[in-house]
Write a structure and sequence with these properties.
The complex is a heterodimer of chains A (455) and B (199).
Chain A lengths: L1 H23 L32 E4 L11 H21 L2 E4 L1 H4 L8 H10 L4 E10 L2 E10 L4 E11 L3 H16 L9 E6 L6 E6 L6 E2 L7 E6 L5 E6 L6 E6 L5 E5 L5 E6 L5 E8 L2 E8 L6 E2 L7 E6 L5 E6 L6 E6 L6 E2 L7 E6 L5 E8 L2 E8 L5 E3 L7 E6 L5 E6 L6 E6 L6 E2 L6 E6 L7
Chain B lengths: L1 H17 L18 E3 L34 H10 L5 E3 L9 H16 L3 E8 L6 H21 L7 E7 L10 H7 L1 E9 L4
Parallel strand pairs in B: 3-4
Antiparallel strand pairs in B: 2-5, 3-5
Classes of the chains: A alpha+beta (455), B alpha+beta (199).
């Protein structure tokens, strides 16, 4: 009698466990979208600074196999590859990563299938394994991602290339991991254009999203500024004084060739591309009155959009193409305004702060970040274009200005003098993960490419 | 008996919550480790060719005679005009492009001198202090330069001789963050830059 009761009890437990487990199974959560409602109810937040929303995935990345056996350039490449993969995944904000220092405490045998339990024991859900080896003058990297629940490999990639592309291999793999596990595009291959005076003149530069590989784009030895990426990431429009009054020019990044866009008149500046890459909007002077114009990318079809006695400048084309944000001092001091891309329906967006300028659209088109003077200091602020809810993202001394959103809308690059000179910083929308990514000279006016061309 | 049942319900439920499912389950396609190798080529060398700035030809040394205004050296011409009362710089209030009375007096004097020497063309450089964004300050410098141009025109100086050029905050004369420096940068700088054969 007793043993039958025990068997019944055990079976009931198992059934209950199964039922509870089944109830807990959730479908994959949909990608969190910040879609603002048409009207805002009191207390409703329409700017989600923690854009991720969902909890971080627990990822174990033990030491890569192989870099220890490499020598010379291959060893350097292998180390750089591993460091870059870790940093890209850490910076993404999607993962809680356990690295070799934590994992070395586990009783690992080296046989992955036997070690699954050990990795799981510290809470990990996913395991990333890397193998690096050299084949002659080539580095070969194999990266695998395993689901620790099932023990199955869910992603496997192999890359091969010269040692000097180790970082690029790492970025490519990190973006693959993010795309696969999170279902979102990564930003590890994206680039930032900016101005720098490190050569003695203000020139246009570009760099990787993490500040690596800073390279000069212009060599005008004059003053060149206001870089704006084309939507396909292949060219940069900018302003330069090298041929007299400030004019608009276009640099092809791969070839280095430059050509004029609009150079007639006394001032053409602050370019911003339409999302199809065919037109630019910019500020142009008509007898001293600066207005917003658009033109084809070859300078044709010049069209005037604003018509006020005040300064209208610094336009930014929306990601979907229907609107242009711009700065106008028609209300007495500079504020951000919106208008349709043909110039109609001009309306004011900012009301707080005494000086608002430098509109930058989020990739989804729901937020505009800008420079805003608060209590006498410049800070980065962000406003929801539908609800007008506004938040200030930076604080303190050091003049934070000129924001640009990352292509995934989760980070902002901006300029700050908090360290003494103008440098470019990157932060999450909620201010976390603040990193300084330039150091040499004075660096400013960042623009973050939406896409990276195949190189 | 009832109590025993409750324990055997509570315990597995508790255990399940403690060691529960992962919060996110990644999709699991077939594990295929025989993957294609992606070849990542070396990036093409992209060196920015330094472009030569067109430098204006060096002016000849003046040997034209006694009137310094006849010199082909623009620096000498500017010096002489200033000696005769030409104001090279006029100043503005913060975020303003309006001309004060004092400025108008100076510009009147400048207009007289310019009308007396119609062969000269003038560049009116508009500048702003370093506060505010570079882009807005380009527009502010442009407004200032054109405010001066409009006023000189209204006093009879031919518009064709007057060229405006905004530098915004890109050509600061000092770099401390205080009003003493800022006020020096909020200016239009007027300089003779060319001579025609008229007059």
């Amino acid at each position: 009698m007793r043993s039958r009761n025990t068997v019944l009890t055990l079976l009931s437990c198992l059934l209950l466990m199964a039922l509870v487990l089944a109830a807990q199974q959730q479908p994959p959560s949909p990608a969190p979208q910040a879609t603002p409602p048409a009207s805002q109810s009191p207390g409703q937040v329409t700017i989600e600074l923690n854009r991720g929303g969902a909890k971080k995935m627990k990822l174990a990345i033990p030491a890569f196999r192989g870099p220890g056996q490499l020598t010379g350039e291959a060893a350097r490449g292998g180390r750089e590859l591993e460091e870059t993969v870790r940093r890209d995944l850490e910076l993404s904000g999607y993962f809680e990563i356990q690295g070799p220092d934590v994992l070395s405490g586990l009783p690992l045998t080296g046989n992955v299938q036997q070690d699954l339990t050990a990795y799981r024991s510290t809470g990990n859900e996913v395991l990333l394994l890397g193998d690096v080896r050299a084949e002659g003058d080539r580095i070969v990297f194999e990266g695998r991602v395993l689901d620790l629940g099932s023990g199955q490999a869910v992603l496997a990639k192999r890359y091969r290339g010269p040692f000097n592309v180790s970082r690029r291999i790492a970025h490519t793999f990190a973006d693959e991991v993010i795309r696969f596990l999170i279902g979102k595009p990564g930003i590890a291959l994206s680039s930032i254009a900016f101005t720098s005076d490190r050569t003695g003149h203000k020139e246009i530069f570009s760099m990787d999203y993490d500040g690596a590989d800073q390279r000069r784009v212009t060599g005008h030895r004059s003053t060149s500024m206001s870089p704006a990426w084309s939507p396909n990431g292949a060219s940069i429009a900018y302003t330069s004084f090298f041929n007299g009054p400030p004019g608009l020019y276009l640099a092809d990044v791969a070839s280095g060739r430059k050509r004029p866009i609009v150079t007639s008149g006394s001032l053409n500046t602050s370019p911003s591309f339409s999302p199809d890459g065919r037109r630019v909007t910019f500020a142009r002077s008509l007898d001293g009155n600066v207005e917003i114009f658009t033109a084809d990318i070859d300078g044709g079809n010049l069209r005037r959009l604003t018509n006020s006695n005040a300064i209208d400048t610094n336009p930014a084309w929306s990601p979907k193409g229907g609107e242009i944000a711009f700065t106008s001092s028609r209300a007495g001091n500079p504020h951000i305004y919106l208008m349709d891309a043909e110039g109609s329906n001009q309306r004011r967006l900012t009301f707080d702060g005494t000086y608002n300028d430098g509109a930058a659209w989020s990739p989804e088109g729901d937020l505009i970040a800008y420079t805003s003077r608060r209590d006498g200091r410049f800070q980065i602020a962000v406003t929801n274009v539908v609800t007008l809810e506004t938040q200030v993202l930076t604080s303190g001394a050091g003049e934070s200005e000129s924001p640009a959103f990352s292509p995934d809308g989760r980070k902002i690059a901006f300029t700050s003098k908090r360290g003494g000179s103008k440098q470019i910083y990157v932060m999450d929308l909620d201010g976390g993960n603040l990193r300084q990514i330039t150091t040499e000279g004075n660096n400013d006016l960042a623009d973050w490419a939406r896409s990276t061309p195949e190189r | 008996m009832n109590r025993k049942w409750m324990i055997w319900i509570a315990l597995p439920v508790l255990l399940t919550f403690l060691y529960g499912c992962p919060k996110k389950k990644p999709a699991t396609p077939p594990a295929d480790l025989d993957v294609e190798t992606t070849t990542v080529p070396s990036p093409p060398a992209t060196t920015a060719a330094p472009e030569e700035v067109q430098q204006p030809a060096a002016p000849d040394v003046n040997d034209q005679g006694e009137d310094p205004l006849m010199s082909s050296d623009m620096a000498a011409v500017n010096e002489e005009l200033q000696r005769r009362g030409f104001s090279a710089d006029i100043y503005f209030d913060y975020d303003e492009s309006t001309l004060s009375d004092d400025t108008r007096d100076k510009l009147s004097r400048n207009a007289d001198l310019l009308k007396g020497s119609p062969q000269f063309s003038v560049t009116l450089e508009g500048h702003a202090d370093s506060r505010g964004t570079n882009e807005y300050n380009l527009a502010l410098g442009e407004r200032r330069a054109n405010a001066v141009r409009d006023y000189l025109s209204s006093l009879g100086v031919a518009g064709a001789r007057l060229r405006t050029l905004s530098y915004g905050e890109e050509r600061q004369v000092c770099d401390t963050d205080d009003e003493g420096c800022w006020s020096q940068n909020r200016r239009v700088h007027m300089v003779i830059t060319g001579r025609s054969n008229v007059g």
